[in-house]
């Protein structure tokens, strides 16, 4: 049997050639052989890891090119789009939602589509969402409006079968796709025993001041739940470990998540204090744009004004990207 073995950290990927008669996802392989079809010789080839610190389990690796030509010079600028999910069914009912997996309302679907129209001229190379359906719906629906017409595809890495069964063998299809990585660390903060309760009835029972303290303080959690500080620890750690390196490498990223996980990330990006972040309000379905350049994040605004480019204050790179879209689409 002919095989190539790549070692990365403590794990091993065993990649089988097209001459192997055994199935590529037999029990003896350590990991599923994520492979592509080369248009030149139709041989299955491994997909290379793009960043030295990424794990072999990182599903974003599936979309990295495996070309032997010299790599392109990395860009010094990358866009970051933040979107809070559209209205959910429990938002509509005024219930504490937290980590309960509730879908969007019709209004929430419309908000996601409108958000997509507002970012349709901004490049997106990778998408990160929480593990909750309302954030995933928002990401997917918003991308239906994007002018580059690439297809967002959720990367399944929860087990070996999921990896093997969802692999893509067409180089051309990969080029027209955007990886969507889901992460529980980007979930809404867990509201503990408040989840499913009506907000007004809870305020009547425990008092407005107590409920306000649970909802708006930085370090006081609701019963058996998370504080904003606890939510920030996991969300910011994930952003710094997984998302920020992609942007340093020149990838344009969109994050569709939740009020508190996004507030936590904005606290990190804007260097807000704990007192400042508790007063930060994020509307559902309204995208915010940041530019990462020279190791700094710069906020370019959110589209509340009359013109998209005026509000976002397009950088030169984004303006050129917009011009190319106008030329070729």
TrEMBL record:
Q: Where does substrate bind?
A: 84-91, 97-98, 134, 188-191, 199, 215-216, 259-260
Q: SUPFAM superfamilies attached here?
A: Phosphoglycerate mutase-like
Annotated spans, Disordered? 50-75
Q: What class of enzyme is it?
A: isomerase
Give the UniProt entry's GO cellular component terms: cytosol
In the Enzyme Commission scheme, what number(s) does this protein have? 5.4.2.11
Q: Which family does it belong to?
A: Belongs to the phosphoglycerate mutase family. BPG-dependent PGAM subfamily.
User: Which NCBIfam families does this chain map to?
Assistant: PRK01112.1
Q: Which HAMAP family match?
A: PGAM_GpmA
Protein name (record)? phosphoglycerate mutase (2,3-diphosphoglycerate-dependent)
The organism that produces this protein has a lineage beginning with: Eukaryota, Viridiplantae, Streptophyta, Embryophyta, Tracheophyta
């Amino acid at each position: 049997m002919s095989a190539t073995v790549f070692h990365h950290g403590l794990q091993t990927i065993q990649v089988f050639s097209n001459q192997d008669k055994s199935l590529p996802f037999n029990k003896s392989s350590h990991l599923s052989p994520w492979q592509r079809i080369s248009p030149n010789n139709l041989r299955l080839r491994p997909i290379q890891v793009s960043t030295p610190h990424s794990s072999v389990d990182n599903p974003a690796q599936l979309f990295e090119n495996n070309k032997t030509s010299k790599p392109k010079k990395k860009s010094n600028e990358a866009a970051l789009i933040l979107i809070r999910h559209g209205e959910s069914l429990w938002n509509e009912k005024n219930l504490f939602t937290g980590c309960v997996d509730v879908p969007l309302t019709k209004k929430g679907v419309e908000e996601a589509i409108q958000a997509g129209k507002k970012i349709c001229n901004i490049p997106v190379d990778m998408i990160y969402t929480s593990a909750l359906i309302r954030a995933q719906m928002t990401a997917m629906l918003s991308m239906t409006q994007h002018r580059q017409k690439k297809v967002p595809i959720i990367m399944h890495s929860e087990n070996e079968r999921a990896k093997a069964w969802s692999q893509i063998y067409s180089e051309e299809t990969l080029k027209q796709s955007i990886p969507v990585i889901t992460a529980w660390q980007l979930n809404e903060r867990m509201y503990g025993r408040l989840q499913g309760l009506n907000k007004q009835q809870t305020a009547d029972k425990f008092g407005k001041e107590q409920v306000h303290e649970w909802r708006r303080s930085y370090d006081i959690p609701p019963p058996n739940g998370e504080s904003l500080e606890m939510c920030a620890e996991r969300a910011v750690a994930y952003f710094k470990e997984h998302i920020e390196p992609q942007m340093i490498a020149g990838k344009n990223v969109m994050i569709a998540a939740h009020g508190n996980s996004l507030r936590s990330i904005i606290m990190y990006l804007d260097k807000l204090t704990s007192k400042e972040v508790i007063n930060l309000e994020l509307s559902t379905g309204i995208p915010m744009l940041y530019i990462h350049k020279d190791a700094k994040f710069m906020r370019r605004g959110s589209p509340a004004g009359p013109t998209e480019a005026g509000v976002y204050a397009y950088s030169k790179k984004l303006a050129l990207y917009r011009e190319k879209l106008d030329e070729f689409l």
